[in-house]
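Morning. Coffee machine broken again, so started the prediction first thing and wrote up yesterday's gels while waiting. Chain of 133 residues, entered below exactly as on the submission form.
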Amino acid sequence: MKTSKSKWLAYTLVIGLVPIATRLLVWATTAPGKVEPFHAPDFIVLGLVLHASMINELEHLSLKERGWKTLQNGSSLFFIALYSALFATTIIGEKTPELIDTDLMLSMSVVVAVWSAVFGFSVFHRLSKRNSE
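Came back before lunch.
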């Protein structure tokens, strides 16, 4: 694995997908209706892993790229705050299910996680280009 993109795919994206894959495995091996195949917190974990890895990787940039690094880190911090709010909402929903629309929470978590994956791919694409120059 020579590029940042391939490392990102192998280490970050696959590790971030572990909760989703585990839930699908549990869902497939249990009685119907006992476990939901998808749950918002699994996608929230994926997003948190993606943004933590971006922040970590951006720490290695040179000073001449400080503006771009600051923008990317700021974006990741925004997403981490958003994921924290989504997670807090799912916790409230566990205690008081009638307060939260779980389908909407799942949809929002999936959309934000997909956006985070696209964002992460673009960051690691730029880092890979920089490393190959």
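The CA atoms of residues 8 and 124 lie 7 Å apart. Going to sketch it on the whiteboard this afternoon.
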